[in-house]
Amino acid sequence: MDISLSPAAGSGRRAARNAQAARLPSLTGMRFIAALAVFLSHLTLENLFADDGVQKSMTAMFIQGGFTGVGFFFVLSGFVLAWSAREKDTARTFWRRRFFKIYPNHVVTFVAAALLLGFVANETFDIGTAALNLSLLQAWAPVNGGFNIVSWSLSCEVLFYLSFPLLFRYIRRIRPDRLWFWVGVVVALILLVPLAATSLPNEPYLWYAETSVPRFWFVYAFAPVRLLDFVFGILLARVVQEGRRLPLGFGWAAALSLVAYATAPLFPMTYKLTAVTVVPLGLLIAAGAVADRDGKRTFLAGRRMVWLGEVSFAFYMVHWLVLTFGVRWIGDEWGTPAALGVTALLFGVTLVLSWLLYAGVERPVMRRFSTRRRPRFVVYRQDPASAKTAAPAPTVRMEDHG
């Protein structure tokens, strides 16, 4: 299946030119900000601060970061995949790249979680939960994800990747002057999701989510619902590629995202999970891509931020294990200065482990297996001295190096 951005596919020469005009370093830097937001959100659940007032302030400040960070990743995923779609790519080669991008990290952290749960937490190994987690099917039902909890988002990403070749085939056929209309349609559907969730049972109650398990799962974790965020990102990529005007520049989009983040807790849970922040985040991603495309430097495009963005997936995959078992070993309810020190320690350990996972697993696996190596032709020259006596032999041999 062709998933290219070639002119013949209907995106126009401008789209193909824009798609290759920038490497989007600002969006790479944004990835770490989103991963850090998720880290701080989960940190608040560990009750590091003995002072109730400080603990409540930390929770009020950062708890929204988990919901916002994941929503950002889903929109960004659609945007980046559409932006970087390769000419004459096929569904099979695309799926191969995405498999080797996410699954090795998932397997490593799954094994680490299983060992920690078994030998440190002394929990019983549940084969059914393990199978759901390892196969990345846990987001399809409101069940206990178990093991490395955060891998539920990869379960959604699997659906995104499987759907992308077909989705992109049709989205790239949309006329440029109709793109904003379809963006509006997808946003309207996202805003209707919390309303649809009210038809689900209001029990059992999920205390930390202020809503029921079925409603929380449907709005936040159900893969087909979160596919809307992904499609939103694809459409925004096409908006930028086609040179359509954005309503906000990078600075204003960042300000709007901060306002949405700050005000989201004022809304009912099913709305603040994604509906309140999805549009500002999408505009921020699109504006960042425009800035990169046009050669405008942002602080997110610096070398350090780009490096942090490159390890952000590994950071996301290891952070929950570090927080959960780190606090188990170190303890909770510390005085404020000590709690800040413990926070810095946990962050540092997470960053080091994420670099090791990125450098030791993610990057080498992608380099070796993400694309199939083509056979290489090797030419052997015959020794002139033996040419007169040796039997004729082929001068070219094909060696399979893949």
UniProtKB/TrEMBL annotation:
Asked if the keyword Membrane belongs to this entry, the reply reads yes
Q: Which InterPro entries match?
A: Acyl_transf_3_dom, Acyltransferase_3
Q: Where are the transmembrane segments?
A: 21-41, 61-85, 106-125, 145-167, 179-197, 217-237, 249-267, 273-291, 311-331, 337-358
- On the tree of life, the source organism's domain of life is Bacteria
Transmembrane helix among the record's keywords? Answer: yes
Q: Where is the Acyltransferase domain?
A: 26-358
Q: Which UniProt keywords apply?
A: Membrane, Transmembrane, Transmembrane helix
**Protein name, as recorded:** Mycarose O-acyltransferase
What is the organism of origin for this protein?
Answer: Amycolatopsis roodepoortensis
